[in-house]
Amino acid sequence: DVKVTQSSRYLVKRTGEKVFLECVQDMDHENMFWYRQDPGLGLRLIYFSYDVKMKEKGDIPEGYSVSREKKERFSLILESASTNQTSMYLCASSQAGRGNSPLHFGNGTRLTVT
Amino acid sequence: RKEVEQDPGPFNVPEGATVAFNCTYSNSASQSFFWYRQDCRKEPKLLMSVYSSGNEDGRFTAQLNRASQYISLLIRDSKLSDSATYLCVVNADYNQGGKLIFGQGTELSVKP
Asked: How far apart (Å, rounded) are the C-alpha atoms in residues B16 and B19?
């Protein structure tokens, strides 16, 4: 079974702090993704990566950056957390392919920025 | 127009009912389609892929209509445990690899 592990289930940070959200997958998947999910807005793609050291902007990259130094690990960084970044953050991975691979999600990090 | 649109519901149905969800997508180049299920405060989980010829998995049937750019999910003989949000998922573009776009989800509540 694919396992995608997110480092924290719940996180509370202060405005202006630098925040790191870590995600590790154990199935040697090439593709990794970061989404955020908000009521009424659904899941929105922040960043994704198809390979080590490679990253692509999703639909809402502003205020975020990512790092993929190893194939199994994909980190989301909030450079200076703001209250509008309070959300549920979901990491996912999939096998390389032409879009026909389903995503496997971690169980999410609920981030509150005060 | 949103890339993937779903009726948000909620759909409130009695146990044993048949319920159908529809989803429309805007990118005619999309090639891969899925239905995910998300329980309250949990992560989305793959329910089933949707194939061109339609496919069935137990009480669940998925259909794809490329000409009209919509996908459907039919649930027969609803169970209480089917209560969840159902997410329609489409790949953004065949040339964008694994990038998937999610609909906002349709909430289903099955009552005794």
From this structure: 10
